[in-house]
Write a structure and sequence with these properties.
Layout: H1 6-25, H2 31-37, H3 42-70, H4 73-89, H5 96-124, H6 130-159, H7 162-182, H8 197-208, H9 211-241, H10 246-270, H11 276-300, H12 305-331, H13 338-362, H14 370-399, H15 404-407
Length: 408
Protein backbone atom coordinates (compact mmCIF):
# COMPACT_ATOMS: atom_id res chain seq x y z
CA UNK A 1 0.00 0.00 0.00
CA UNK A 2 1.29 3.45 -0.92
CA UNK A 3 1.97 5.57 2.16
CA UNK A 4 -0.70 8.30 2.45
CA UNK A 5 0.11 11.94 3.04
CA UNK A 6 1.17 13.35 6.40
CA UNK A 7 -2.28 14.84 7.11
CA UNK A 8 -4.12 11.57 6.41
CA UNK A 9 -1.67 9.60 8.57
CA UNK A 10 -2.08 12.00 11.49
CA UNK A 11 -5.86 11.99 11.11
CA UNK A 12 -6.14 8.18 11.16
CA UNK A 13 -3.57 7.68 13.93
CA UNK A 14 -5.19 10.49 15.92
CA UNK A 15 -8.63 8.92 15.46
CA UNK A 16 -7.30 5.59 16.74
CA UNK A 17 -5.71 7.28 19.75
CA UNK A 18 -8.89 9.34 20.37
CA UNK A 19 -11.20 6.32 20.54
CA UNK A 20 -10.46 5.64 24.22
CA UNK A 21 -10.78 9.30 25.33
CA UNK A 22 -14.05 9.54 23.41
CA UNK A 23 -15.26 6.37 25.14
CA UNK A 24 -14.33 7.86 28.50
CA UNK A 25 -15.81 11.34 28.05
CA UNK A 26 -19.02 10.90 26.06
CA UNK A 27 -21.14 9.24 28.74
CA UNK A 28 -20.00 11.44 31.64
CA UNK A 29 -23.03 13.81 31.47
CA UNK A 30 -25.31 10.76 31.89
CA UNK A 31 -23.95 9.56 35.22
CA UNK A 32 -27.03 10.67 37.16
CA UNK A 33 -29.45 9.28 34.54
CA UNK A 34 -27.59 5.95 34.44
CA UNK A 35 -27.67 5.83 38.25
CA UNK A 36 -31.46 6.31 38.25
CA UNK A 37 -32.09 3.79 35.46
CA UNK A 38 -29.89 1.12 37.01
CA UNK A 39 -31.06 1.92 40.57
CA UNK A 40 -27.64 2.76 41.93
CA UNK A 41 -25.54 5.80 42.98
CA UNK A 42 -23.37 8.17 40.95
CA UNK A 43 -20.14 6.97 42.69
CA UNK A 44 -21.13 3.40 41.75
CA UNK A 45 -21.58 4.48 38.12
CA UNK A 46 -18.10 6.00 38.27
CA UNK A 47 -16.81 2.46 38.90
CA UNK A 48 -17.74 1.69 35.28
CA UNK A 49 -15.17 4.35 34.40
CA UNK A 50 -12.67 2.63 36.70
CA UNK A 51 -13.47 -0.67 34.98
CA UNK A 52 -12.67 0.93 31.64
CA UNK A 53 -9.33 2.22 32.93
CA UNK A 54 -8.43 -1.21 34.36
CA UNK A 55 -9.36 -2.91 31.09
CA UNK A 56 -7.34 -0.57 28.95
CA UNK A 57 -4.36 -0.88 31.28
CA UNK A 58 -4.39 -4.69 31.30
CA UNK A 59 -5.21 -4.98 27.60
CA UNK A 60 -2.23 -2.95 26.49
CA UNK A 61 0.12 -5.55 27.96
CA UNK A 62 -1.65 -8.12 25.78
CA UNK A 63 -1.43 -6.13 22.55
CA UNK A 64 2.20 -5.06 22.86
CA UNK A 65 3.66 -8.52 22.11
CA UNK A 66 0.93 -9.20 19.51
CA UNK A 67 1.84 -6.02 17.62
CA UNK A 68 5.51 -7.03 17.57
CA UNK A 69 4.68 -10.61 16.52
CA UNK A 70 1.93 -10.13 13.90
CA UNK A 71 2.47 -6.56 12.71
CA UNK A 72 0.30 -3.58 13.60
CA UNK A 73 -2.92 -4.15 11.65
CA UNK A 74 -4.06 -7.72 12.42
CA UNK A 75 -4.26 -7.23 16.23
CA UNK A 76 -5.87 -3.87 15.54
CA UNK A 77 -8.66 -5.51 13.53
CA UNK A 78 -9.38 -7.91 16.41
CA UNK A 79 -9.46 -5.13 19.01
CA UNK A 80 -11.76 -2.89 17.00
CA UNK A 81 -14.23 -5.75 16.39
CA UNK A 82 -14.25 -6.54 20.14
CA UNK A 83 -14.86 -2.86 20.93
CA UNK A 84 -17.85 -2.67 18.58
CA UNK A 85 -19.41 -5.83 20.04
CA UNK A 86 -19.00 -4.60 23.66
CA UNK A 87 -20.40 -1.16 22.80
CA UNK A 88 -23.55 -2.71 21.36
CA UNK A 89 -23.76 -5.01 24.40
CA UNK A 90 -24.05 -1.95 26.67
CA UNK A 91 -27.50 -1.30 25.17
CA UNK A 92 -28.95 -4.33 26.96
CA UNK A 93 -27.55 -3.89 30.51
CA UNK A 94 -30.01 -4.08 33.41
CA UNK A 95 -27.70 -3.41 36.37
CA UNK A 96 -24.47 -1.59 37.14
CA UNK A 97 -22.40 -4.79 37.39
CA UNK A 98 -23.19 -5.67 33.77
CA UNK A 99 -22.21 -2.16 32.66
CA UNK A 100 -18.89 -2.36 34.55
CA UNK A 101 -18.05 -5.73 32.92
CA UNK A 102 -18.95 -4.55 29.41
CA UNK A 103 -16.99 -1.33 29.86
CA UNK A 104 -14.01 -3.50 30.85
CA UNK A 105 -14.39 -5.56 27.66
CA UNK A 106 -14.89 -2.41 25.59
CA UNK A 107 -11.61 -1.10 26.98
CA UNK A 108 -9.78 -4.31 26.07
CA UNK A 109 -10.84 -3.65 22.49
CA UNK A 110 -10.09 0.07 22.42
CA UNK A 111 -6.58 -0.25 23.78
CA UNK A 112 -5.54 -2.04 20.59
CA UNK A 113 -6.20 1.27 18.84
CA UNK A 114 -4.17 3.39 21.25
CA UNK A 115 -1.18 1.00 21.46
CA UNK A 116 -1.06 0.58 17.68
CA UNK A 117 -1.26 4.34 17.12
CA UNK A 118 1.67 5.07 19.45
CA UNK A 119 3.79 2.26 18.01
CA UNK A 120 3.08 3.39 14.43
CA UNK A 121 4.28 6.91 15.22
CA UNK A 122 7.59 5.32 16.21
CA UNK A 123 7.51 3.21 13.02
CA UNK A 124 6.64 5.93 10.54
CA UNK A 125 8.51 8.97 11.89
CA UNK A 126 12.04 9.70 13.08
CA UNK A 127 12.95 10.37 16.72
CA UNK A 128 13.40 14.06 15.87
CA UNK A 129 9.95 14.22 14.23
CA UNK A 130 8.12 12.29 16.96
CA UNK A 131 7.48 15.11 19.50
CA UNK A 132 5.85 17.25 16.80
CA UNK A 133 3.84 14.28 15.55
CA UNK A 134 2.67 13.50 19.08
CA UNK A 135 1.67 17.17 19.45
CA UNK A 136 -0.35 16.86 16.24
CA UNK A 137 -1.97 13.72 17.60
CA UNK A 138 -2.81 15.65 20.75
CA UNK A 139 -4.74 18.11 18.58
CA UNK A 140 -6.91 15.28 17.23
CA UNK A 141 -7.17 13.53 20.60
CA UNK A 142 -8.03 16.73 22.44
CA UNK A 143 -11.01 17.35 20.19
CA UNK A 144 -12.72 14.45 21.99
CA UNK A 145 -13.08 16.25 25.35
CA UNK A 146 -14.42 19.26 23.44
CA UNK A 147 -16.98 17.29 21.44
CA UNK A 148 -17.69 14.14 23.43
CA UNK A 149 -19.34 15.44 26.65
CA UNK A 150 -21.22 18.17 24.77
CA UNK A 151 -22.49 15.76 22.11
CA UNK A 152 -23.13 13.15 24.78
CA UNK A 153 -25.18 15.62 26.82
CA UNK A 154 -27.43 16.46 23.88
CA UNK A 155 -27.69 12.81 22.81
CA UNK A 156 -28.67 11.71 26.32
CA UNK A 157 -31.23 14.50 26.66
CA UNK A 158 -32.84 13.62 23.32
CA UNK A 159 -32.67 9.81 23.17
CA UNK A 160 -31.29 8.38 26.42
CA UNK A 161 -27.85 7.34 27.64
CA UNK A 162 -27.84 4.05 25.68
CA UNK A 163 -27.48 5.98 22.43
CA UNK A 164 -24.00 7.07 23.47
CA UNK A 165 -22.89 3.48 22.96
CA UNK A 166 -24.67 3.24 19.61
CA UNK A 167 -22.70 6.29 18.50
CA UNK A 168 -19.42 4.83 19.79
CA UNK A 169 -20.03 1.58 17.90
CA UNK A 170 -20.59 3.46 14.62
CA UNK A 171 -17.56 5.68 15.27
CA UNK A 172 -15.34 2.62 15.77
CA UNK A 173 -16.71 1.02 12.61
CA UNK A 174 -15.87 4.13 10.57
CA UNK A 175 -12.31 4.21 11.97
CA UNK A 176 -11.89 0.51 11.19
CA UNK A 177 -12.86 1.12 7.56
CA UNK A 178 -10.26 3.92 7.34
CA UNK A 179 -7.60 1.64 8.84
CA UNK A 180 -8.36 -1.17 6.39
CA UNK A 181 -8.27 0.97 3.26
CA UNK A 182 -5.97 3.92 4.01
CA UNK A 183 -3.45 3.00 6.74
CA UNK A 184 -0.35 1.08 5.62
CA UNK A 185 1.18 -1.77 7.60
CA UNK A 186 4.17 -0.04 9.20
CA UNK A 187 5.94 -3.05 10.70
CA UNK A 188 6.77 -6.39 9.15
CA UNK A 189 5.60 -9.26 11.36
CA UNK A 190 8.46 -10.79 13.32
CA UNK A 191 7.83 -14.51 13.08
CA UNK A 192 10.81 -15.15 15.37
CA UNK A 193 9.17 -13.13 18.15
CA UNK A 194 8.05 -15.63 20.79
CA UNK A 195 4.71 -15.33 22.56
CA UNK A 196 5.82 -17.64 25.34
CA UNK A 197 5.76 -16.02 28.80
CA UNK A 198 9.53 -16.23 29.32
CA UNK A 199 10.67 -14.33 26.19
CA UNK A 200 7.83 -11.80 26.59
CA UNK A 201 8.84 -11.10 30.17
CA UNK A 202 12.50 -10.73 29.17
CA UNK A 203 11.53 -8.30 26.40
CA UNK A 204 9.29 -6.30 28.74
CA UNK A 205 11.99 -6.28 31.43
CA UNK A 206 14.59 -4.99 28.97
CA UNK A 207 12.24 -2.14 28.07
CA UNK A 208 11.12 -1.36 31.62
CA UNK A 209 14.66 -1.22 33.07
CA UNK A 210 15.89 1.32 30.53
CA UNK A 211 16.44 4.51 32.59
CA UNK A 212 15.07 6.81 29.92
CA UNK A 213 11.96 4.65 29.51
CA UNK A 214 10.99 4.39 33.17
CA UNK A 215 11.78 8.03 33.94
CA UNK A 216 9.67 9.60 31.22
CA UNK A 217 7.06 6.83 31.32
CA UNK A 218 6.43 7.53 35.01
CA UNK A 219 6.33 11.29 34.38
CA UNK A 220 3.81 10.72 31.58
CA UNK A 221 1.63 8.32 33.60
CA UNK A 222 1.62 10.31 36.84
CA UNK A 223 0.69 13.61 35.23
CA UNK A 224 -2.04 11.85 33.24
CA UNK A 225 -3.42 10.36 36.47
CA UNK A 226 -4.25 13.93 37.46
CA UNK A 227 -6.21 14.25 34.22
CA UNK A 228 -8.16 11.06 35.00
CA UNK A 229 -8.91 12.31 38.51
CA UNK A 230 -10.40 15.41 36.90
CA UNK A 231 -12.43 13.30 34.43
CA UNK A 232 -13.79 11.01 37.17
CA UNK A 233 -14.56 13.80 39.66
CA UNK A 234 -15.84 16.46 37.23
CA UNK A 235 -19.47 15.21 37.04
CA UNK A 236 -19.64 15.39 40.84
CA UNK A 237 -17.83 18.72 41.14
CA UNK A 238 -19.62 20.57 38.36
CA UNK A 239 -23.10 19.02 38.29
CA UNK A 240 -23.61 17.91 41.92
CA UNK A 241 -21.67 20.55 43.88
CA UNK A 242 -21.97 23.59 41.57
CA UNK A 243 -25.35 22.62 40.03
CA UNK A 244 -24.29 22.90 36.37
CA UNK A 245 -26.68 21.36 33.80
CA UNK A 246 -25.71 18.40 31.59
CA UNK A 247 -25.22 20.57 28.53
CA UNK A 248 -23.48 23.26 30.61
CA UNK A 249 -21.11 20.62 31.93
CA UNK A 250 -20.33 19.60 28.36
CA UNK A 251 -19.47 23.18 27.43
CA UNK A 252 -17.22 23.58 30.49
CA UNK A 253 -15.47 20.34 29.58
CA UNK A 254 -14.99 21.65 26.04
CA UNK A 255 -13.64 24.99 27.29
CA UNK A 256 -11.11 23.26 29.52
CA UNK A 257 -9.96 21.14 26.60
CA UNK A 258 -8.87 24.31 24.82
CA UNK A 259 -6.09 24.75 27.40
CA UNK A 260 -4.79 21.25 26.68
CA UNK A 261 -5.11 21.67 22.91
CA UNK A 262 -3.60 25.15 22.85
CA UNK A 263 -0.50 24.35 24.86
CA UNK A 264 0.12 21.06 23.04
CA UNK A 265 0.27 23.10 19.83
CA UNK A 266 2.43 25.80 21.43
CA UNK A 267 4.78 22.92 22.23
CA UNK A 268 5.47 22.47 18.50
CA UNK A 269 6.65 26.09 18.37
CA UNK A 270 8.76 25.77 21.51
CA UNK A 271 10.58 22.80 20.02
CA UNK A 272 12.12 25.16 17.47
CA UNK A 273 14.20 26.68 20.27
CA UNK A 274 14.16 24.13 23.11
CA UNK A 275 14.53 20.36 23.20
CA UNK A 276 11.91 18.10 24.79
CA UNK A 277 13.88 17.76 28.05
CA UNK A 278 13.95 21.51 28.54
CA UNK A 279 10.22 21.94 27.93
CA UNK A 280 9.38 19.23 30.48
CA UNK A 281 11.86 20.67 32.99
CA UNK A 282 9.95 23.98 32.90
CA UNK A 283 6.37 22.71 32.61
CA UNK A 284 6.46 20.01 35.30
CA UNK A 285 7.43 22.18 38.31
CA UNK A 286 4.88 24.76 37.13
CA UNK A 287 2.20 22.05 37.13
CA UNK A 288 3.24 20.89 40.61
CA UNK A 289 3.01 24.42 42.06
CA UNK A 290 -0.37 25.05 40.40
CA UNK A 291 -1.81 21.82 41.77
CA UNK A 292 -0.52 22.59 45.29
CA UNK A 293 -2.22 26.00 45.13
CA UNK A 294 -5.42 24.29 43.92
CA UNK A 295 -5.28 21.88 46.87
CA UNK A 296 -4.69 24.68 49.37
CA UNK A 297 -7.66 26.66 48.01
CA UNK A 298 -9.91 23.56 48.18
CA UNK A 299 -8.85 22.75 51.75
CA UNK A 300 -9.52 26.35 52.82
CA UNK A 301 -12.97 26.35 51.20
CA UNK A 302 -12.12 29.20 48.82
CA UNK A 303 -13.10 27.51 45.57
CA UNK A 304 -16.08 28.48 43.44
CA UNK A 305 -17.03 27.42 39.91
CA UNK A 306 -14.79 30.00 38.21
CA UNK A 307 -11.68 29.45 40.31
CA UNK A 308 -12.05 25.68 39.93
CA UNK A 309 -12.22 26.02 36.15
CA UNK A 310 -9.16 28.32 36.21
CA UNK A 311 -7.01 25.90 38.24
CA UNK A 312 -7.97 22.93 36.06
CA UNK A 313 -7.21 24.94 32.89
CA UNK A 314 -3.72 25.76 34.17
CA UNK A 315 -3.07 22.11 35.08
CA UNK A 316 -4.23 20.89 31.66
CA UNK A 317 -2.18 23.57 29.92
CA UNK A 318 0.97 22.26 31.58
CA UNK A 319 -0.07 18.73 30.64
CA UNK A 320 -0.27 19.84 27.01
CA UNK A 321 3.43 20.71 27.21
CA UNK A 322 4.48 17.64 29.19
CA UNK A 323 2.66 14.81 27.41
CA UNK A 324 3.92 15.02 23.79
CA UNK A 325 7.52 15.35 24.95
CA UNK A 326 7.37 12.67 27.64
CA UNK A 327 5.72 10.22 25.20
CA UNK A 328 8.37 10.85 22.52
CA UNK A 329 11.24 10.51 25.01
CA UNK A 330 9.72 7.34 26.49
CA UNK A 331 9.69 5.56 23.11
CA UNK A 332 12.85 7.11 21.65
CA UNK A 333 15.33 4.37 22.69
CA UNK A 334 13.34 1.61 20.97
CA UNK A 335 12.94 0.38 17.44
CA UNK A 336 12.48 -3.39 17.46
CA UNK A 337 10.48 -3.40 20.71
CA UNK A 338 8.41 -0.28 20.03
CA UNK A 339 5.13 -2.22 20.38
CA UNK A 340 6.08 -3.55 23.80
CA UNK A 341 7.37 -0.13 24.90
CA UNK A 342 4.16 1.55 23.75
CA UNK A 343 2.09 -1.10 25.55
CA UNK A 344 3.99 -0.66 28.82
CA UNK A 345 3.68 3.11 28.59
CA UNK A 346 -0.06 2.90 27.99
CA UNK A 347 -0.60 0.23 30.64
CA UNK A 348 1.08 2.31 33.33
CA UNK A 349 -0.74 5.44 32.21
CA UNK A 350 -4.15 3.78 32.32
CA UNK A 351 -3.35 1.77 35.44
CA UNK A 352 -2.59 4.91 37.42
CA UNK A 353 -5.65 6.53 35.82
CA UNK A 354 -7.80 3.64 37.07
CA UNK A 355 -6.32 4.01 40.55
CA UNK A 356 -7.02 7.75 40.55
CA UNK A 357 -10.65 7.23 39.48
CA UNK A 358 -11.18 4.56 42.15
CA UNK A 359 -9.79 6.91 44.82
CA UNK A 360 -12.28 9.56 43.65
CA UNK A 361 -15.18 7.11 44.16
CA UNK A 362 -14.10 6.45 47.77
CA UNK A 363 -14.69 10.04 48.88
CA UNK A 364 -18.11 11.39 49.94
CA UNK A 365 -20.32 12.18 46.94
CA UNK A 366 -20.35 15.95 47.53
CA UNK A 367 -16.63 16.40 48.28
CA UNK A 368 -14.55 18.62 45.98
CA UNK A 369 -11.27 17.60 47.64
CA UNK A 370 -10.33 14.40 45.68
CA UNK A 371 -9.58 16.19 42.42
CA UNK A 372 -6.99 18.74 43.68
CA UNK A 373 -5.55 16.25 46.18
CA UNK A 374 -4.76 13.65 43.52
CA UNK A 375 -3.52 16.31 41.07
CA UNK A 376 -1.10 17.66 43.67
CA UNK A 377 0.23 14.26 44.75
CA UNK A 378 0.90 12.98 41.23
CA UNK A 379 2.41 16.23 39.93
CA UNK A 380 4.86 16.51 42.84
CA UNK A 381 5.80 12.81 42.52
CA UNK A 382 6.40 13.23 38.77
CA UNK A 383 8.65 16.22 39.41
CA UNK A 384 10.74 14.29 41.96
CA UNK A 385 11.01 11.30 39.62
CA UNK A 386 12.17 13.53 36.77
CA UNK A 387 14.92 15.04 38.91
CA UNK A 388 16.16 11.61 40.04
CA UNK A 389 15.69 9.90 36.67
CA UNK A 390 17.64 12.44 34.65
CA UNK A 391 20.69 11.70 36.79
CA UNK A 392 20.37 8.00 35.94
CA UNK A 393 19.99 8.79 32.22
CA UNK A 394 23.10 10.97 32.30
CA UNK A 395 25.09 8.18 33.94
CA UNK A 396 23.90 5.71 31.30
CA UNK A 397 24.84 8.07 28.46
CA UNK A 398 28.29 8.60 29.99
CA UNK A 399 28.74 4.82 30.32
CA UNK A 400 27.42 4.16 26.78
CA UNK A 401 28.15 7.23 24.61
CA UNK A 402 26.31 5.78 21.61
CA UNK A 403 23.03 6.34 23.44
CA UNK A 404 23.41 10.13 23.58
CA UNK A 405 21.65 10.84 20.32
CA UNK A 406 18.62 8.87 21.50
CA UNK A 407 18.51 10.05 25.08
CA UNK A 408 18.65 13.72 24.30
Amino acid sequence: MKRPGHFVLILILGSLAALSPFSIDMYLPGFDVIARDLKTSVPSVSLSLSGFFIGISAGQLLYGPLLDKFGRKLPLYFGMALYIAASLGCLAVTDIDQLIVLRFVQAIGSCAASVAAMAMVRDLFTVAESPKVFASLMLVIAVSPMLAPTAGGYLIEAFGWQWVFVFLAFMAAAILVAVIFFLPESYQPDRAYSLKPGPILRSMTAVATNPQFFTYCLVNALTFAGLFAYVAASPIVFMTIFGVSKTGYGWIFALLSVAFIGLSQVNSLLLRWFNSNKVIALALPAQALISLAFLAAAAAGWLNLYSTVAFIALYLGCLGLINPNSAALTLAPFNKNAGSASALMGALQMGLGALASVVVSLFPEKSSLPMPLIMAVVAVLAWLILLAGRRLITRQVEAEPGLSTVAH
